[in-house]
Amino acid sequence: MEDLVKFVQDEFVAKKEMPEFAAGDTITVYYEIKEGSKTRTQFFRGVVIQRRGSGSTETFTIRKMSGTIGVERIFPLNLPALQKIEVNKRGKVRRARIFYFRELTGKKARIKEKRG
User: Fold this and answer.
1) What is the pLDDT of residues 25-44, one digit of tens each?
2) How far is CA 25 from CA 13, 68, 101, in A?
3) How many helices (H) and strands (E) does the chain have?
4) 95 by DSSP, 3-state: which?
5) How many CB atoms lie within 10 A of CB 67?
6) Is the pTM of this model over 0.90?
7) How far apart are CA 19 and CA 86, in angstroms?
8) What is the DSSP-derived secondary structure letter of residue 91?
9) Rounded to an integer, what distance in angstroms lies between the CA atom of residue 29 and that of residue 61?
10) Distance of alpha carbon 40 from alpha carbon 31, whole angstroms
11) CA 69, 34, 13, 1 torsion: positive or negative?
12) Angle at the Cα of 72 (from 14 to 112), degrees rounded to 5?
């Protein structure tokens, strides 16, 4: 049964071309917001905390600091409102899910950049 569901998702759900990114990377996500009859593009720039799921149900979590308050947002990769994703910095982390990043503040909350 689950093979059939996977087959249908792979065949009929439109895949978007997105750049490769992983936990620790700083990315900017541009997405559309509908306000009444108008639409506008808004962006969310932050550090990728995790990627989870697979295929058409894959999601990623981004965290940014808004003043002194941490804001996290979960985006599905196949969200129709998603316009584009830009990778600003490649981060060097040792884990796939960096939840410890939530407790870090100040200079400790910096992630080293990947070289090369």
Assistant:
1) 999 999 999 999 999 999 99
2) 27, 21, 12
3) 1, 5
4) coil
5) 6
6) no
7) 7
8) B
9) 11
10) 8
11) positive
12) 95
Give the Cα separation of 110 and 41 in Å (integer).
28
Instruction: Give the per-residue pLDDT at 13.
Output: 65
Residue with token string 């792979």: 10
CA angle 32, 36, 38 (to 5 degrees): 50
**Whose CA is closest to 46, among 116, 111, 92?**
111
Q: Which of 69, 64, 73, 82 is nearest to 18 (CA)?
A: 82
**Residues in contact with 95: Cβ distance below 8 Å, sequence separation at least 6, in sequence order:** 23
Name residues of the chain where pLDDT drops below 50.
Answer: none
Residue 63: what pLDDT? 95
